[in-house]
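Appendix B, example 12.
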Amino acid sequence: MSLRRWSRALPFAALALAGCKSNNPPASAAQDAGAPTAAVAPAKAPAAPPAPEPVPAPPPAAPAVATGPALSFLRPSDPERCDWVRQPLPSGEPTKVFSFDAACDRSMVSWSPDGKEGLVFTWPSGEGEVPKAWRVDLVAHSGKPLDLKTLPGGKDAGGQDQPALEQLGFDKEGVPVALISDAYVARKAEKGPGGKKFITFEGTRYPVGGGEGSAGLAHAYRLEAGGWKRIETVATSYGSDLSPGVLELKVNQRLLPVAKASPSHHNPGEEAAEPAVKKLDKAFPGLDESGQWMVLSTPGGKLYYRGTLGGEFLYPGAPIAWEQDGKLVELEGLFAKPNDYLDIVLQEGWLLVANYGDPRSAQVWDAKTKERIVSAEEASAPAFWPGPGGP
């Protein structure tokens, strides 16, 4: 195509293009004329970020063993229901760690090595009653009955010439151990060669010694996977103050302490010197001459108390007095009276006086300041809380 022909075609093309545009007015003009328009889609909102994953709540903290110095005792809530109480020292609210249906003054308690478990044992008082026991979770403050029926003496109150369940406690591995007494009163030991006596039990002969009281056997049973298993039997004697009874068992060396509702007759002091005796006799006249004055050294000075003769032994008794600035000062607010059976325990600066008379009580003094910090009336089986929960 020549240059001329191109130049002539251009005006025609321009006219054709202009004609096309005139047939499509601008949108604004069409709207002014009332012509419909296509809907315009709104702009898309940005997508919302995903919701964060919920953070799980932390699990509740597991209850812990109560710690710090404390006093343990049993307190009746009615004649046949008892509360096991933990009283912090030197102050604080007492906590009821377990309640059980039995008499406090016939019960004993013990603790596992880690302080997380306890045992409660109540011996029967007469015909128609049975021994009872509970294994206690000292963290959760709950407990379950422990079956004693397969133990000798575990089904009833027993009687003369019958086995009796005498003590229940933990060994150093935290396993319950039961001690059984079996005194031969009307029963007679067998005679062997040379006139020696013995008692046969489950096919084994146990030679009988010539000690005071009645001959008999003592047994130890341990609660293992299959139930109660006998782990030791020895010949012993019963019925006299000097009779060892179940203390003859070697397993006692592996048992942890037991707090009983009966006095231990433990005498913590030593005989007082003569000058102190004269001063004490003058300050407290008219006491039974069969007793004697004893002295116990404490962080707050010397503590004097009257040792009272009971059978073959001297047990702690009242009056009790501190020596202060050369004078004798009685313990403030002491519940005990002369001839009451007492236990006196000094531990880490705390002085516990447990009274097994009437009424029973447990009192604690700060041995440094001589201040009385606890007085619990109607308290049985008092003891300092051992292990992680106490001194």
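The radius of gyration is 43 Å. The mean pLDDT is 86.
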